[in-house]
Design goal:
Helices cover about 5% and strands about 45% of the residues. By secondary structure, it is mainly beta. It has a domain of about 120 residues: Trypsin-like serine proteases (Thrombin, subunit H), CATH 2.40.10.10. A hairpin with a 2-residue loop joins strand 15 and strand 16. The radius of gyration is 18 Å and the shape is globular. It starts with a strand and ends with a helix.
């Protein structure tokens, strides 16, 4: 009897467009640059969650077995309720065969999968507006009790945001020729620029060897607001320079990073969250 085998092939290339100088590049497989690796005892492991999508299955047969391979898109997300995951819209794969999931390691280091029953992408993103790169995934079952439910900010509060804690499972180097080391959770503190509650996104400085990169998309920007850990941003894009010195390699992650501003998108997040819960 032939055996049925299922494998995942990790898709490490970022979803990128043809770029002009200084244009932003969307990240489907993002990572933390210049940060520290997080061990299993660190609270960050229960704040930034491994959000992956299995899709585009290909089945191969031989005399001994039937093997199904999947492409796997690596992103990051955060829990805003026991079943709701906040992530980036471009992390959602719009295919019937796509399986969106969160993988969490238990105390023994084993990975436990929580599949999404439903997903929602901001409608303006679907219309082509990249300033609305936010999405929600509603899980089939509650997350473990030790996962931290991050607070959402008040819509128009003046938070005095000057820095955020970034976390994600992506690459550690934005140069295509360098090893990415993705799939490992890392975290770093980043300096905020160009922030206002009424803007759809804010920027973080990545010119000092720290930032997020290919493989961190959807990951939270976190800050302590009034004594509570708050998700204030969703990792979306980075900028890079196109004019290179002779022999210099393009680095996608060394100028600025763009986070979707949770304050600006709060109405949609709350409305969609309530719709999921009521269904």
């Amino acid at each position: 009897m032939r055996k049925l085998l299922i494998f995942g092939l990790l898709l490490l290339t970022a979803c990128q467009e043809s770029l002009q100088n200084g244009e932003v590049s969307p990240l489907l497989d993002d990572a933390i640059v210049g940060g520290r690796e997080v061990d299993n005892a660190d609270p960050v492991t229960r704040q930034a969650l491994n959000f992956r999508v299995f899709h585009s299955p290909v089945t191969k047969e031989d005399a001994e077995s039937i093997t199904t391979y999947y492409k796997v898109s690596q992103c990051t997300g955060s829990a805003i309720s026991t079943r709701l995951i906040l992530t980036a819209a471009h992390c959602i794969i719009q295919r019937e065969d796509a399986s969106h999931r969160v993988d969490i390691k238990n105390g023994e280091g084993q990975s436990i999968t929580y599949k999404a029953a439903k997903v929602a992408v901001h409608p303006k993103y679907l219309e082509g507006d990249k300033n609305y790169d936010v999405a929600l995934a509603y899980l089939e079952a509650d997350l473990p009790a030790d996962v931290e439910i991050l607070h959402l900010p008040q819509k128009e509060a003046l938070m005095g945001l000057t820095s955020v804690v970034a976390a994600g499972f992506g690459r550690t180097d934005g140069r295509p020729s360098q090893p990415g080391n993705s799939g490992i959770l890392r975290t770093v503190e980043l300096r905020v620029s160009k922030y206002a509650p009424t803007l759809p996104y804010f920027m973080v400085n990545q010119s000092e060897g720290k930032g997020f990169c290919q493989g961190d998309s959807g990951g939270p920007a976190m800050a302590m607001i009034n004594g509570v850990n708050t998700v204030v941003g969703v990792a979306s894009k980075t900028t890079h320079k196109m004019e290179l010195a002779p022999g210099e390699e393009k680095n996608l992650c060394i100028l600025e990073g763009q986070y979707m501003n949770v304050q600006f998108h709060l109405d949609w997040i709350l409305t969609e969250s309530a719709r999921f819960i009521m269904q």
